[in-house]
Design brief:
This protein is α/β, with parallel strands linked by helices and 278 residues long. 39% of the residues lie in helices and 23% in strands.
């Protein structure tokens, strides 16, 4: 079946219903809206009727113009789909990784001309339970129990004048920021480091970052090592929905203290503005 056929309907994955048009998952745990790229991944896999889809085919579908780090982008999208399914009260293992082959949605997928089409389950009894559950959910108002995936932070390496000392320190800073942000904020924000953001030309492409990895915030800036003044570090956070600067800092630090002082301050800055994500 074609993607166009599938995109006009809904599909039931075990105990949850997925609407490719809106990107919403509805299940016993509530209603979850997937970011655009994870939603396109789930729609694409479901439309393939339980077949294993190679990572190359997935990359071509999600990034028709190419992506430098497609594997990381696919990994991110898969994690977001599974987290969304689990948050909605479904079984994330229905999205199955087949080593060295690709991915599939376990069981048969079909376009939903009726209110819902079952994917997975164990025969008519499972179908009945699912449809009854969906009906009850509507009656009980699951829409009031909304659960969203965490916002995504896209980290770009700080730009430098090009000298070796500045480039080396900027690379260390971006690696440290990615690691510490993941460790300290991993439960409240998804972190995509410079390797994952390398598929776009730069941090100004906020619309593409929002579309491809669901980024809410973009972290970027500049760094310069000067022998007379130390390390000058400028960092900014931009919201992708409207390109508004929501946080910024400018510090001059001793070279030996640059990482230990800059990293926690920047991560704290990220944490302080997470509520601006929509």
């Amino acid at each position: 079946m074609s993607d166009r056929d599938f995109d006009n309907g809904r599909v039931v994955l075990g105990s949850i219903v997925f609407d490719p048009g809106s990107g919403e998952l509805v299940g016993p745990g509530g209603r979850v809206r997937l970011a655009p790229q994870p939603s396109r991944l789930l729609a694409f896999l479901s439309s393939r009727g339980g077949q294993v889809v190679s990572r190359a085919d997935i990359a071509d579908h999600l990034w028709p113009h190419g992506a430098v780090e497609a594997d990381q982008g696919i990994g991110f999208a898969v994690r977001e789909v599974r987290k969304g399914m689990e948050a909605a009260g479904g079984d994330p293992s229905l999205v199955e990784t087949i080593p060295r082959r690709g991915l599939r949605v376990v069981a048969e997928a079909a376009p939903a001309d009726e209110p819902a089409v079952v994917v997975g389950g164990k025969g008519a009894r499972s179908r009945s339970r699912v449809l009854i559950g969906v009906a009850l959910a509507s009656i009980l108002g699951w829409s009031l129990l909304r659960s969203e995936p965490p916002p995504v932070l896209a980290i770009f390496q700080h730009e430098t004048p090009g000298d070796e000392a500045s480039r080396a320190l900027a690379a260390q800073l971006s690696d440290a920021l990615t690691t510490v942000a993941f460790q300290d904020l991993g439960g409240t924000v998804g972190v995509v480091g410079p390797t994952g953001t390398a598929s776009v030309e730069g941090p100004d492409e906020t619309a593409r970052l929002r579309e491809e990895i669901g980024a809410c915030l973009v972290l970027s800036g500049g760094l310069r090592v000067a022998s007379d003044t130390g390390v000058v570090v400028f960092t900014q956070l931009v919201r992708t929905s409207d390109r508004v600067h929501v946080w910024a800092s400018l510090d001059t630090l001793a070279v030996e203290d640059a990482l230990t002082e800059a990293v926690p301050d920047i991560v704290a800055g990220v944490e302080s503005v997470l509520d601006v994500c929509d």
